[in-house]
Amino acid sequence: MDITVNKSKKLRGIIEIPADKSITHRAFMFSSLTKGEMKVSNYSKGADCMSTLKIIEKLGCEIKFINDKEVLVNAKNALKAPLTPLDCGNSGTTTRLMMGLLAGQKFNTKLFGDISLSKRPMKRVIEPLELMGTRFIHNDYKLPLEIIASDLNGINYVSPLASAQVKSCLLLAGLNAKGETIFTEPYKSRNHTELMFEYMGADIKINNNSASIKNSQLNPTDINVCGDISSAAFFIVAALITPDSDITIQNVGINETRSGIIDVLKAMNGDIEILNERTISNEKVADIRARYSSLKATTIEGAIIPRLIDEIPVLVIAATQAEGTTIIKDAQDLRNKEADRISAVTNEFKKLGADIIEKNDGFIVNGKTELLGDCEIECYHDHRIAMSAYTAGLICKKPIKINEFQWVDISFPEFLNLHSKIQS
Ligand code: S3P
Q1: Could you write out the DSSP letters of every residue in 108-170?
Q2: Is 333 a catalytic residue?
């Protein structure tokens, strides 16, 4: 589906953002290990989370949709050998977390994915899982691959990468391993696995950038998933850059390991208010108000990068509207996402008229620039490139065309519908 985005007038209104993708993946996967029944409310309906849900069904879980917002997962007969290979679709989180979950099971499993996922590196999880005793059949550490049933031993793993996918993979394997599994990372990545494991009764301890887990059984515990700050980011930036805008986004997860986007946009002079803070299913949640602002440039590097890694494409759009030079560095793993996001952002957003210099590990963005539009944008099969381009389109002088916009369905099928509610 190709779409045209026209320059927008002010954005106004109160909206609720769909559920967090990372938390939904975990709620589904962890429910499959409970040997009981639990309800997941307000789950993400994006294609990525549906890939995870279908996989746990193939592993023996009974899935019952109670209504539009709630799903019941019955894992009393899970986990058993799937009859066919497991399809991870476009989802890196499904693949890498599932690999940890499946590594300590009593049966072999085959995993595969779409073209984009089949190019993504799995060495980061295969290597430590091999150290724990898992055997794999793979070609160049990529999908498709086979996990051979093995007995696992805990390891003390110091990761070169700050990655929640690697961390969660090892903690999931650690649930079934002999002894203790310790994972340490250079900076703290998102900690939804640790929080949900605590909530579900696992024997887990956290010490700064380390998490350690002992062989544990997860208890079935109903989970209510909060709104996704990574999805909210597109609306927050849209309000900050579109003159006279004032929007409130309700029920957004503001977990500190995810809220780097708020810190950076506030440092850029963004008018953002955090309202009505509360805790839901062991996660911090709030309503976020964002108003049109005169942005100024900043530098984004180091420990904050894992706290906003998925928001960098839309932050680049904000940087084009900020006075001065914004520098984004230490983000080389952006090249290993659904697309190489460093080259995709540079190539596509330059077409809009942005002044962006590509670096090996990030960008230099000079602002403030008037975005002229009048061009065709490619999404590179990447939902976040599609939504970032749409956000830019709201302030482009002339309409832009975005090709294959249907990639938004990976995380945010409700995106256009929600936009229609705030555009006047
Ligand atoms: C995710 C972790 C991040 C993020 C991805 C979701 C997760 O990846 O980019 O969209 O749910 O654990 P890395 O852990 O590879 O940085």
Answers
A1: -EEEE--HHHHTS--HHHHHHHHHHT-EEEEETTEEEEEEEP---B--EEE-SS--HHHHHHH
A2: no
User: Of 310, 333, 382, 409, which residue is the catalytic one?
Assistant: 310
By residue range, what is the domain housing residue 206? 21-224
Provide residues with CB under 6 Å of ligand 1.
22, 25, 93, 163-165, 168, 189-190, 309-310, 333
User: Given ligand 1 and candidates 30, 163, 305, which is best to mutate, with the most ligand atoms within 8 Å of its CB?
Assistant: 163
Checking if the pLDDT of 400 tops 90, the result is yes
* Residues 395 and 354 grouped into a single domain: yes
Q: What is the pLDDT of residues 147-166, one digit of tens each?
A: 998 999 999 999 999 999 99
Res 424: pLDDT: 81
Nearest to 349 by CA among 369, 322, 328: 369
Q: Tell the residue nearest (CA) to atom 4 of ligand 1.
A: 310
Reading across the β-sheet that carries 70-74, which strands appear in turn? Answer: 62-65, 70-74, 37-41, 223-224
Over residues 73-130, the pLDDT tens digits come to 999 988 999 999 999 999 999 999 999 999 999 999 999 999 999 999 999 999 999 9
Q: What's the pTM? A: 0.98
> Among residues 188, 206, 224, which one ends one of the domains?
224
Count of C-beta atoms within a 10 Å radius of residue 360? 9
How many domains is the chain partitioned into structurally? Answer: 2
Same domain, 314 and 402: yes
Best mutation site among 189, 193, 197 for ligand 1 pocket (most ligand atoms within 8 Å of CB) = 189
